[in-house]
Design a protein that fits this description.
Strand order of the largest sheet: 1-6-7-2-8-9
Number of domains: 2
Distance between the termini: 35 Å
Structural class: alpha+beta
Number of strands: 9
Protein name: DNA binding protein
Radius of gyration: 18 Å
Keywords: Transcription, Transcription regulation
Order of helices and strands: EEHEEEHEEHEEHHH
InterPro entries: DmsR-like_N, HTH_bacterioopsin, RNA_pol_sigma_r3/r4-like, WH-like_DNA-bd_sf
Pfam family, one: DmsR_N
Length: 205
């Protein structure tokens, strides 16, 4: 079940975007119970004072009727409350080798950067796997991170995180190069290659 927590966060309008994040949490009872799961139905018990309990129904094998139920207290290591504070719609889709596959729907692309930062602040590691136009149902416009190299993905994720694509920009190629330990031209080449592939995946050949 998608989790929708009311918040004062503003929406900027436009077509909603759905981002798929792969999160390795510092400690997650759901992932401990089932390091690999085909589907997860999750509900957070929240109030205006915060989220206190996580309830999950885990389908370990899609061909097996067996499900695992968990109900655990939420602590500082849980990444879901960190996402919920942004007032976005999100859901825990599956679990891969202990990593949570999380779908997040936002109207402001900048929120994705903020959500990633919040997850990392909570102690989790996260990578962006895909961004999709939420209104598209035929898969057109999907941005598959697997279509780019690891170095290109690292560069573009850092660029998004540091605000390279914000208006106005909050960083430049020099700062990105320093963080990655490479030259400005190397960063530029990686970003250009990744952007080209991502744009082709959006608009087609």
């Amino acid at each position: 079940m998608a989790t929708d927590v009311p918040s004062a966060a503003s929406e900027t309008g436009g077509t909603p975007l759905e981002a798929t994040l792969v999160v390795e949490p510092p400690d997650c009872p759901v992932a401990r119970e089932a390091p690999n799961a085909a589907a997860v139905s999750q509900t957070l018990s929240c109030s205006r004072h915060g989220c206190r309990t996580c309830h999950a129904e885990i389908a370990v094998d899609p061909d097996d009727a067996r499900t695992v139920h968990t109900s655990t207290d939420i602590d500082a290591d849980c990444i879901c409350p960190a996402i919920a504070t942004f007032g976005c719609v999100f859901s825990l889709e599956s679990i891969r080798d202990g990593a949570l596959v999380v779908s997040v729907v936002v109207r402001d692309r900048g929120l994705i950067t903020d959500i990633v930062a919040a997850i990392r602040e909570a102690g989790g590691s996260v990578r962006l796997e895909r961004i999709t136009d939420h209104e598209m149902t035929d898969g057109t416009g999907s941005v598959e991170a697997v279509d780019i190299t690891n170095k290109q993905r690292e560069a573009i994720e850092l660029a998004v995180e540091m605000g390279y694509y914000d208006q106005p920009r909050r960083t430049d190629l020099g700062e990105l190069a320093d963080r990655l330990g490479v030259s400005r031209s190397a960063v530029s080449q990686r970003l250009n290659a990744a952007e080209s592939k991502l744009l082709r995946s959006l608009i087609g050949p």
